[in-house]
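Service request form, structural biology core

Requester: graduate student, group of Dr. S.
Request type: structure prediction, single chain
Budget code: on file
Notes: please return the result as C-alpha coordinates.

Sequence provided:
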Amino acid sequence: MDVRSLYAALDAARQQQELSWRQLAKEIGVSASTISRMANGLKPDVTAFAAMTTWLRMPAENFYVGTRGPSPEEPDLVAQMVPLLRARKDLNASDVAYLEEVIGAAARRFRAEREPRS
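Core staff response, request fulfilled:
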Protein backbone atom coordinates (compact mmCIF):
# COMPACT_ATOMS: atom_id res chain seq x y z
CA MET A 1 0.00 0.00 0.00
CA ASP A 2 1.27 3.45 -0.93
CA VAL A 3 0.55 5.19 2.38
CA ARG A 4 2.08 8.49 1.24
CA SER A 5 -0.22 8.76 -1.77
CA LEU A 6 -3.28 7.85 0.28
CA TYR A 7 -2.36 10.37 2.96
CA ALA A 8 -1.72 13.04 0.28
CA ALA A 9 -5.11 12.37 -1.32
CA LEU A 10 -6.83 12.60 2.06
CA ASP A 11 -4.95 15.80 2.88
CA ALA A 12 -5.87 17.41 -0.45
CA ALA A 13 -9.54 16.53 0.02
CA ARG A 14 -9.43 17.67 3.65
CA GLN A 15 -8.01 21.04 2.70
CA GLN A 16 -10.45 21.47 -0.17
CA GLN A 17 -13.38 20.81 2.17
CA GLU A 18 -11.81 22.91 4.95
CA LEU A 19 -11.88 20.08 7.49
CA SER A 20 -9.57 19.50 10.42
CA TRP A 21 -7.90 16.11 10.64
CA ARG A 22 -10.30 15.15 13.47
CA GLN A 23 -13.32 16.20 11.41
CA LEU A 24 -12.02 14.20 8.46
CA ALA A 25 -11.51 11.10 10.62
CA LYS A 26 -15.04 11.42 12.00
CA GLU A 27 -16.52 11.87 8.51
CA ILE A 28 -14.65 8.83 7.17
CA GLY A 29 -15.48 6.75 10.25
CA VAL A 30 -11.94 6.05 11.42
CA SER A 31 -10.03 7.16 14.49
CA ALA A 32 -7.92 10.29 14.36
CA SER A 33 -5.00 8.19 15.59
CA THR A 34 -5.27 6.01 12.47
CA ILE A 35 -4.71 9.06 10.29
CA SER A 36 -1.98 10.32 12.62
CA ARG A 37 -0.13 7.01 12.27
CA MET A 38 -0.40 7.31 8.48
CA ALA A 39 1.40 10.66 8.69
CA ASN A 40 4.30 8.66 10.12
CA GLY A 41 4.18 6.13 7.28
CA LEU A 42 2.23 3.37 9.07
CA LYS A 43 -0.45 1.51 7.13
CA PRO A 44 -4.10 1.65 8.18
CA ASP A 45 -5.93 -1.63 8.71
CA VAL A 46 -7.99 -3.05 5.86
CA THR A 47 -11.29 -1.69 7.20
CA ALA A 48 -9.89 1.84 7.58
CA PHE A 49 -8.24 1.62 4.15
CA ALA A 50 -11.56 0.63 2.57
CA ALA A 51 -13.37 3.45 4.38
CA MET A 52 -10.79 5.98 3.19
CA THR A 53 -10.85 4.95 -0.45
CA THR A 54 -14.65 4.83 -0.37
CA TRP A 55 -14.79 8.34 1.12
CA LEU A 56 -12.34 9.58 -1.53
CA ARG A 57 -14.42 7.79 -4.20
CA MET A 58 -11.22 6.35 -5.59
CA PRO A 59 -10.41 2.72 -6.42
CA ALA A 60 -8.28 1.02 -3.79
CA GLU A 61 -5.99 -0.10 -6.63
CA ASN A 62 -4.84 3.52 -7.00
CA PHE A 63 -2.95 3.03 -3.75
CA TYR A 64 -1.43 -0.41 -4.33
CA VAL A 65 2.34 -0.36 -4.61
CA GLY A 66 3.53 -1.52 -8.01
CA THR A 67 0.31 -0.82 -9.93
CA ARG A 68 1.40 2.66 -10.87
CA GLY A 69 4.71 4.38 -10.97
CA PRO A 70 5.17 7.18 -8.46
CA SER A 71 8.56 7.32 -6.84
CA PRO A 72 8.62 6.49 -3.12
CA GLU A 73 9.17 10.14 -2.24
CA GLU A 74 6.49 11.62 -4.54
CA PRO A 75 2.77 10.83 -4.16
CA ASP A 76 0.96 9.92 -7.37
CA LEU A 77 -0.24 12.96 -9.31
CA VAL A 78 -3.70 11.52 -10.00
CA ALA A 79 -4.14 10.52 -6.35
CA GLN A 80 -3.42 14.10 -5.35
CA MET A 81 -5.59 15.77 -7.98
CA VAL A 82 -8.76 13.65 -8.09
CA PRO A 83 -10.09 14.73 -4.68
CA LEU A 84 -9.60 18.35 -5.70
CA LEU A 85 -11.41 17.78 -8.99
CA ARG A 86 -14.28 15.98 -7.26
CA ALA A 87 -14.71 18.84 -4.82
CA ARG A 88 -15.27 21.36 -7.62
CA LYS A 89 -18.89 22.29 -8.04
CA ASP A 90 -18.47 23.20 -11.71
CA LEU A 91 -17.49 19.61 -12.68
CA ASN A 92 -19.88 16.67 -12.83
CA ALA A 93 -18.87 13.02 -12.38
CA SER A 94 -18.29 12.55 -16.12
CA ASP A 95 -16.04 15.60 -16.25
CA VAL A 96 -13.99 14.32 -13.31
CA ALA A 97 -13.67 10.84 -14.81
CA TYR A 98 -12.54 12.32 -18.13
CA LEU A 99 -9.98 14.59 -16.48
CA GLU A 100 -8.74 11.74 -14.28
CA GLU A 101 -8.14 9.63 -17.39
CA VAL A 102 -6.43 12.47 -19.29
CA ILE A 103 -4.18 13.38 -16.36
CA GLY A 104 -3.39 9.71 -15.72
CA ALA A 105 -2.52 9.12 -19.38
CA ALA A 106 -0.28 12.18 -19.45
CA ALA A 107 1.49 11.14 -16.24
CA ARG A 108 2.07 7.61 -17.61
CA ARG A 109 3.47 9.07 -20.83
CA PHE A 110 5.83 11.37 -18.94
CA ARG A 111 7.09 8.46 -16.82
CA ALA A 112 7.58 6.30 -19.92
CA GLU A 113 9.57 9.05 -21.63
CA ARG A 114 11.88 9.33 -18.62
CA GLU A 115 12.55 5.59 -18.37
CA PRO A 116 15.81 4.44 -19.94
CA ARG A 117 15.33 2.55 -23.18
CA SER A 118 16.76 -0.95 -23.43
